Amino acid sequence: MNNIELDTPITLKRGQPIKNRLFKSAMSEQLGDRHHNPGEEFTNLYGAWARGGIGLAITGNFMVDREQLGEPKNIVLDEKSDFVQFENWAKAGTQNNTQLWVQLNHPGKQVPNFIHGRPVAPSALPLEGALQKNFNTPRELKNKEIEDIIQQFSLSAKLAKKAGFSGVQIHGAHGYLVNQFLSPRHNQRKDKWGGSLENRMRFVLEIYQAIRETVGDDFPVGIKLNSADFMRGGFSEEESMIVVKKLDAAGIDLIEISGGSYEAPIMADGTGKKSSLQREAYFLEYAEKVRKLVDTPLVVTGGFRSSKAMRQALTSGATDFIGLARPMALDPNMPHKAIQDKSYQVQSRPLTTGFKALDKMVLLNMSWYEVQLARIAKGKSPKLNLSEWYSTLIVFKHLGIFAFRKRRA
Length: 409
What we know:
Distance between the termini: 59 Å
Radius of gyration: 20 Å
Helix content: 25-40%
Largest sheet: 8 strands, parallel, barrel
């Protein structure tokens, strides 16, 4: 057992100090403008979290290719971006000695068909399950395109460092492109990018190396990685641990553990082993296995709701950080409260419109929280009794507007 509290500082292996063990995991803000730049709402939102006491915050998706977006209002950081707005965001989010890292992502085939008619992926295989009708079958990437995407990750990382962000995180989970390359279910290529696990992990390792060469040795680079895809024939727990060992050997600074995808959204619906749910941590058992393999700092995200469970997870040694997402949407000052009050517990409730199919269609367990983020970004307090129907109408409003623009285009 370790004598670690929520406010115990930690220093990463390249020397970057982080003031406490509370980690804001990425959430989709859906607040970008029509040019995919961040405005004042982002400085308000991340400024509130920085003042609230979080040690390390991860942004929502920064898409590395503005032609391939996962959501209508995604942020994009490239040569066409309004750089001053990114600098303002970084300045606001790093106040109060807070670390703010950019999450870099490419959606691969997880592009809704009202955004892009022909997404790209390792192989030309469609998404399956209830959401299939909303996503078109992707086109298989050519070798040159794969190399170009690797360089797009590198460029976005370079610009993030220049703007004043503290680090970057590669999104290698939740069924997006990096995860698609890792998955034997989605990656059925016959070249050097597919087949064996060694080939399937080549994409993420080359992204890491390209970023590292660009940003240097003193800038943190982390990854969000699935413990498993929770789908038959997908990326398995055993394969995930092998990838973790490779990333550790390559020098990755921080590994956040998650799981699932659009097809099996365990990260959104909170399903999992009963023992994990009782410990308020969906992926803690996996982390305990990984801790025996590597010494890279780990983050477990998903399920934490009480100071007691957070401290227990830290003292067990299985994780170095407590990953928090939805609790940060319910109260930006949650870190201060959790540190000061050992009996603190997040107040939340199950969400439903009363129609399960509708709840799934609008990803209610995500979209309801996006509305809370928008309130904080406008200087308002979260509204815990916010109607599920209200947030559902907001989703339809946003999707309707963008679907219309796509047809007009």
